[in-house]
Every structure is written in structure tokens, then in C-alpha cells.
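Worked example (supplementary).
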Amino acid sequence: MLRVDGLNAHYGRAHILADVALTAAKGEVVVLIGRNGAGKSTTMKCLIGLLRPTSGEIRFEEKRIDRLAPHAIARLGLGYVPEERRIFTDLTVMENLEVGKRPPRPGLQPWTAERLFTLFPNLGEMRNRPGGRMSGGEQQMLTIARTLMGNPACVLLDEPSEGLAPVIVEQMVETIRKLKLEGLSVLLSEQNLHFAALVADRAYVIEKGRIRYEGTMSALAEDEAVRAAYLSV
Amino acid sequence: MTLADITIQLLNGLAGASSLFLVAAGLSLIFGVTRIVNFAHGSLFMLGVYIAYSLTDQFGRGSPLAFWSCVLAAGVAVGVIGFVVEILLLRRIYQAPELFQLLATFGLVLVIKDVVLKLWGPEDLLGPRAPGLRGAVQVMGKSFPEYDLVLIAVGPIMLGLIWLVLNRTRWGVLVRAATQDRDMVGALGVNQAWLFTGVFALGSFLAGLGGALQVPREPAQLFLDITVISDAFVVVVVGGLGSIPGAFLAALLIGVIKAFCIGIGDVQAFGTTFSFSKFTLVVEFVVMAIVLVIRPWGLLGKPAGEPRHTAATEAPLKPLPGWLVLGFAGLGAALLVLPVFTQSYLLILLIDVFVFALFAASLHFLMGPAGMVSFGHAAYLGIGAYAAALMVLRAGIPMEATLALGPLAAALGALLFGWFVVRLSGVYLAMLTLAFAQIVWSIAFQWDGFTGGSNGLIGIWPPAWAAEKEAFYHLSLVLCAAGLLALRHIIFAPFGAILRAGRDSPLRADAIGIDLRRHQWFAFTLVGAFAGLAGVLHVFSKGSISPETLGIARSVDGLVMVLLGGVQTLTGPVVGAGVFIFLQDEIARRVEFWRAILGLVIIVLVLAFPQGIVGFLRGRFMRAAA
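After joint prediction of all chains, the assembly is encoded as:
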């Protein structure tokens, strides 16, 4: 579904990503785990085309996408949920969803606002509320719902649990599991190992822009040495 | 004034406000989505006027249906022009720094002006009056044109239509979303390029329609582009950037106040006559200055968050390498001995280059290190020039003294205006500088008895020792070089470092105890003095001065010079001034439509060198060295 090889990225002269390689199969939940500043968000931005990688190859459903514009990548079925949420605060919930709307994708059940409101019941109760007058948790749900309106085959979730209350984090776990059941692939970035362990099938540990570990989530959970080296604060 | 007079003036104001609102709404929409301050928006309005003139003159005299079809067709035609312009030009420069986009649209202003001149000629053209609306209605015993009543209704109707499009269509929702976060809209699968094209076409259509509606009221004139764009800027800024209802409110406010100033006419008070009708030239800028000081984001605007950085942050400045210092010293020496070898025309041209290099460098100081973009820097050039001229003519003060007193006067002007200016930032700051420049301009333009009004002042020549071209050439060279070196020195001094720190991160500068506003205020005053010195030299080199010296066009010249050379380098403005003066001179001497050529040159330069000429060269050298 998604395959990244030898990805390098720079901000100015700073080398942010060094030979990042990862894959995500259909229906798989993969976590990119690492500390603050390890290069998680940069990887995500390269994948969706908001940042042009200096070298490397990104393939989505076998098609090269690393030189495409963000909208072209999104249209191929790669959905992006940014870390900062980036809700359109002047727009209502319904209007935010409208911006994300794209035609249905063959083989996947199309998302509608109504179907999303069964997944995120809170949103259904505030259809005409401007995005700027929602809580952080509600905004996080809306930003995911907005991306799902594009009927993506694979979703990039950049630190979905960040700054959320525990009860909302639980809801997030549920949401990701449901997306997996829908047959979607999910690539999420996380600092929170506990959260990742609840949802992910496989994990990549990233540190200083390099992939340091690759394995199943359960293997990582048991690998004390890797966790101590790359994840403890 | 009777109640009837007041009513009529109110109606006049409302009628004038409709066109203004349409132009401003288009400008606001375009800025909101594309972040381009479209200097050519007034030119699109002017195209609307001329196209509507031709259409209605040919086909629109018969029936109301024919007339209104012509008006609409003119709007659509301008919309199509906007569509083409966006695809051919703007689409290529969205990644360029905002100022370059501004520069490119200013190139368009020049091109469109000459195209209009070529197609329609220089005379004012008065179109036919609207069939079926040629009469007048009686309002409280006074007659009021029927057509103007219709215009009054057009404003709110268009406001309603724009609202419907923005709130009830998918396209409108996308436009509003893109106004907030265009990258996110792209990441959600929306092709921004077409969205931008659509918005630009719609904005152009509104400008064209606004122009077309004016045909039965006012003649088509060649200076409409600049007057309309400055009016529209004011309306957009007063209303709040990106707020369409705000633009409507501001258009009404300014339209009505202007109409009242015309209506009041001359008023006797305190033994002198105060002419309100002359005041109309500045009244909108006074309103804008007041609104911006009280509500820095306009009437209905929202405080902008920290802007998302689109361009890369500026690299730290580096001292010049030794070979370049030698090069400049050599150039200076060559310029010093040049008069021995050459004829006087080149010297006259070089004096212009020196003066404008200093002017551009002072503007660059403001735009680059101090991070404040001024659209009205010519005001300080003009204050210096006028102060010197008035001192010489009215008080017999010698030139030597004016070389100090002229810059002082300019600094005082900058001190006064700067107090307001540093309270704002970004586009708002730029607009306020424009407003102050316009105020200074209109004082020079209106005060016939003192400043010579539109004729200006003549007979301001240097004393005998500097009267020869060679002598004045040397004087200019030495003073301008000294000014340039001083500016450069200040940029590297702690004061300059503080300004650069404040530009790059106001919050962090604040947190380490820098009173940024006070430093910016001082910087504004300081560059005013340098611009003033350039002004004094300018007036003595020409022997005369007129209000054009401090008009908007001159301020824009300064911007063009700085941007041509490149904002991120210190030598840039000097190179930019040289290239600009020579280009202008060469082109103006050789061809009739020099403005269009200059405009095209600017556009090509922006497309080819988005970092400016010097920035481009430096990039080349750095790559070669690496």
C-alpha cells in the first residue's frame, strides 16, 4: 500500500531525515514512534507532499508520489491528519467536512457526514458550530472526520493522542481500531508507547531522523533495551 | 447645511460607495486566498471603465436591457482578463516572497496603463447615460439622478450575492477554508491552483463591474488605476483584511464622508478659509489612520495570528569579503575621476543613481533589517526636498545648511508618523505608511500659496561653488556614499542587531527585554533622515520640485529598486537603483510606450530572479564556491 525507501529531507541545511524506509500494508496499523524532534512529523509531511524530500522514493499503491503536489497525493487516496489539527476555525463542522469531501473510492464503503457522526457522536450534536469554538478533543475528532470525508485508502495520523484528555484518548483508540476494521491502512506517529501498543500491528522507532528499530508492536513492547535507548525521556 | 443638503450628500456618498465596495471586495477576496496584494486591481477597474465605455457607446444606447448587458459584459471581460493573468503570471510566483508578487502586479499596472493609452488614447471619455435612468427624482425638493439611486441598491445586492456564493456553495466554502489555511486545503485534495485562478477571476470581475457601473457617472480617465487602488486599499484595510462585510461598511463610511467634504465646501473659521472640498483627497487616509490606531485590524477584521512562514527566514548578514570591499573602493575611485573622461549627460544620470541608491538603501534598511515594509517612503524624500526648497526660496537659507536641516525636517516627519506606524505590522503597517505619504502629498499638492501646489517650486539651484555639474556630481557622490556606509555600519551595530532580532522573532526579542517598538520608531525616524538627505540632493540637482516627488508612484519606484536588487543583501538596493534609473532612462528615451516596457521588464525580472538580481548572483557564486 505504502512504501518509503531512502527518504532524506532537509530544512535549509539541517538534515532532518536520513534514509528513512518503511512500509504499511493494506489494513495494517503501523506506528512511527520516537521522541520530540525525532523526525516523525517531517516524515508525514514528506508523505503528503507538504515538504519536498531531497531524495528517496515514496510509493503509494505502486505509484511514485514523491514529486506530486499535496492535492494530487490526497486524491490518490492518502489522507493526512496534521499534528496541529489545522481545523478551519471560521467554518462550521459541516463546512469543515465539506472541504474534505471527495468522490467514493471503489472497494471501500463511502463516508458521509451521517456515517461519521455515528463514529464521532459528539460532532453530530454540533453540526453548525464554528471550528474555533470546539474543545481540543472535539477538534481532533473533526480533523480525522474531515480527512475521512476524502475516502482515503490509507490515513496518516500525526500524533493523534497529543494533548488529549485520557477519556478522549480511549475514544481515539476505538476510532483507529474501527478504521482498521473498515479495511483502511493507518500510519500514525506517536511518542506515547502505551497508546501505540493499544492500536498498532507493527512499529518503527525513529531517532534523529533515522529508523533505529523495526518489528512487531509486541516485540517492541518486550524489548527493554530498544525502549531505553530511543524512547525513554 | 439644511436637512435636504445633508440627505443629498448622504445619497451621493452611498452611490459612490457601491463601486468602491465592489473593487474592495475583489481585492479582499484575492488577498484572503492568494495572499497577493494585487496592486493591479485599480487597473482592472480602469479596464472595466474603458471596456464598458466602448460597449455602451456602441451597443448600449438603445434599451435598458442592452445597456445593462454591456455593463455585465464589461465585468465578465475583465474577469476573463484576470483569469488569463493569473494563469500566465501569478501562478508562477505564488512561492516567491510576498513583496515580489506585489512587484509583479505593479509591473502589470504599468503594462495595463499603456495598453489602455494605446487602445483608447489620452483623452477623457464620457460614456452614454443609462437608458431609462437619464432623469432625476426629487428628494426633499432637490433633484437626485435616478441612476445613482440604482447604484445605491447595487452595493447591498452584490454584498448579498457574494455572501451567498461564499456560504452556500461548495466553491465558497473552499475559498473560505483556503483563506484560513490554504496548504491544509491542498492536503485535503483540493487543487489550489484552480481555486486561486477562480478567486482571481471573480475578484477581477468585481473590479471590472465596479468600473463599468461608473461609466454613466464619471468619464474614463487614465489615472483611475492609481486613485482607485489607493481608495480600495484604504477600504479593505479600514474594513479589515479579508472581511467582505467590513469592506462594505468601510466603503459606505468613506463614500459618505467624502461626499460630505465636497458638499460642505469652504468654511470660514478663525479668520481663514478652510476648504473641505480639497480635504477630500486626504480624508479617507485620515479615517484610515484613525481606525488603524484604534482598531489595528480594521472595523470588522480579526487580529491575525502569527503568520505561517511561507518564505524561508532570512540568513544572517555577513560582512563583505575582502575582494568585494576592494572592488567597491575601486568603483568609488573610478566614479570620483569619471568627470574627467565623460560628457555631462552621464553625470546627470549618475547623480540620479546616487540619490536613488541612498533613497533605496534607506527604504531597504526599513524593509530588510527593520522588517517594516513602507509603501510611502517617498514622503520623507519629499519632505527633505520641500524643506530644502522652501528654506532656500522663502528664508534665503544657504544650501549647505539645508543639507543638515532638510534631513532633520524629514526625520521630524518620520518621528511623528512613525509613532503610529510602529504600532502596526505587515500589510496594515504598509498601508498606514501609504496613508501618511498621501497626506503629505496632498498638503504639497493643495497648499498653492506655500508649496506652489501642483506646479511645485522652481529656481532652487546650488550656490556658485557647486553649480557646475562636476562639482555637484562630486558632492552627491561623497554624501550618498557616506550615507550608504553609515546605513551599513548601523545595520551591523548593536542597534541593527536588535532590529533584526525583532524582525525574526518579536516574541523572543520581547522576552529578553528589548523594547522593540521604541527601536523600530527610532529606526523609522533615522531612515527618514537618510531619505531626506537624498531629497535635498535631488531638489538641488533638478533645480525644481513638484508633488510627484513624493507621490505613490515614487514610493513604488523605491520598492521596485529594492526588490530588483534583492532585499536580503545590502548591495541590492544600490544595484537596483542603478538598474532602474538606467532602464527607465534608456526605455523612456527610445520608445513611446516606455511604461509597458518597464512593466514587462519588471515582470520578467521577477519571474527570472525571485531573489532579486544580487541575491541571484550571490546564489550563483555560493554554488560555484561550494
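Two points are worth noting when inspecting this output. The longest helix of chain A spans residues 166-181. Strands of chain A lie at 2-11, 14-24, 29-33, 55-60, 63-64, 78-81, 154-158, 185-190, 202-207, 210-216.
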